[in-house]
Amino acid sequence: MFSMDIAAGQNQSGSLLGLILPFVLMFVIFYFLLIRPQQKKQKTRTAMLSALKKGDKVVTIGGLHGTIIEITDDIVVLKVNDVTKLTFDRSSISHSVSNAEA
């Protein structure tokens, strides 16, 4: 009778592991397919925004092309043409355009 109680206890812990294992596996898959790439992308975007300097050619999220003429911690002033200067939040910069692309 005692040996049956031990076997029943092992069976319950095995079934508990069988219930938890798929959830752990799903979390690991979500982490490597969704969370980790998004964190890498955010890290590269933050590095790009912090590396911006005066004279860089950039594209805003709205698709506006311009050259940075003033930059602070949170504000960027872009020169669009000879006359027009527009002020944007630093976070509204989509990407920097290198000289090779221009």
TrEMBL record:
GO biological process terms, semicolon-separated: protein transport
Major subcellular site: membrane
Compartments (UniProt record): Cell membrane
GO cellular component, one term: plasma membrane
Listed InterPro entries: Preprotein_translocase_YajC (IPR003849)
Transmembrane segments: 16-35
Membrane topology term: Single-pass membrane protein
Keywords, alphabetical: Cell membrane, Membrane, Protein transport, Translocation, Transmembrane, Transmembrane helix, Transport
Organism superkingdom: Bacteria
A Pfam family assignment: YajC
Family listed: Belongs to the YajC family.
Protein name per UniProt: Preprotein translocase subunit YajC
Species for this entry: Paenibacillus lemnae
Lineage: Bacteria, Bacillati, Bacillota, Bacilli, Bacillales
